Amino acid sequence: MILGVFCARNLASVDAMNKSNPFVVVELVNALLQTHTEYKTINPEWNKIFTFAVKDIHSIVEITISDEDPNKKAEFLGKIAIPLLQVIIFLQIQNCEPKWYALKDRKLRTQVKGQILLEMDIVWNPIRAAIRTFTPRERKYMQRDPKFKRRLFINSYTRLREFLLVLVEIRDYVQSCFDWDSPMRSLFAFVVFIIFVYFFHIHHIPIIILLFFLRPYKIKSSKSNKNSSKSVSESEEEPDFIDTNGQSSSSIRERFNTFQDTMAKVQNTMDFVASLLERVQK
C-alpha cells in the first residue's frame, strides 16, 4: 500500500497564539511511521509518501494527528481509521485521487475540528487475499504509554511497604544484638560473626546469596495484587482541557502533564521494584 500524507487544514489550536505543532502518525497493525513536525500552524503541509507491506486486506490503517509540546508530550488533535477494503472500493470509483477526510475523536465517534488530505493506492492479489481471510488476524503488539493511576500507585506502595517492614524488623534485630538486650543472643551473634570472619572466602559469596532464596519468610506474594494491578480500570484517561482562558489554560495543562509524567515514572519504578523483590522472595 502506498499512502500519501499531503496536508491538513483548520486543525484545533492548543496554545495561546491559536497555533499548533502538528505531526502525523500512520499505523497499520504493527507497522508505524511518522511525519516531521510543522511548527506554529494549523494548516500544515507534510507531503510525505509512505509504503506499507499489507499482510491482510481486512486490516485498518489509522492516521493520528498530534501536537508536539515543548515537553515532548504529544497532544491529541484528531484521528481517522480507514479499512483497506474501503480504500479498494474507492479506488475502483476514483483512481488514486487525493481525498479530504474529516478528523474524529479518540474513539472515532464524533467529529472534531480539522481535515486531512490523503492519497492511497493498493496493489493486491484477490486470490491470496481470499486465502488469507481464513487465517487469524495478526495481533497488534504495540502498547500505550503507561499513565498514572491512583489505585495502581497505592497497590505498588503497599507491596513495597511489606518488604520495607521486613527490613525494619531485621534492622531492629541487629540493633538489639549490638545493644545486648539479650546477652545470650548477643553472645551467640558475636561468636557467629567471629567464625564467619575467620572462615570466610570469596567463593562463599554465591552461597550467601543463595541463603536469601532459602529464607523461611513468606511475604504475601500477591498474585491477587498482580491481578488487581492488571484489573485497574483503563478508563482513567487523561482529562481533556479546553483552551478557553488562553495562556492560563495552556499553563495548567502543561503543569498537569508534567506532574502526570513524573508520577507515572514513580509508579512504574515502584511496580518494577516490587515485582523484582517478589520474584526473589519466591
TrEMBL record:
Keywords: Calcium, Membrane, Metal-binding, Transmembrane, Transmembrane helix. One of its GO terms (cellular component) is synaptic vesicle membrane. GO terms for molecular function: calcium ion binding. Residues 1-101 form the C2 domain. PROSITE patterns: C2. Residues 221-250 are annotated as: Disordered. Gene3D superfamilies: C2 domain. InterPro entries: C2_dom, C2_domain_sf. GO terms for biological process: regulation of neurotransmitter secretion. This is C2 domain-containing protein. Pfam families: C2. It comes from Loa loa (Eye worm). PANTHER family: C2 DOMAIN-CONTAINING PROTEIN, MULTIPLE C2 AND TRANSMEMBRANE DOMAIN-CONTAINING PROTEIN. The chain crosses the membrane at residues 187-214.
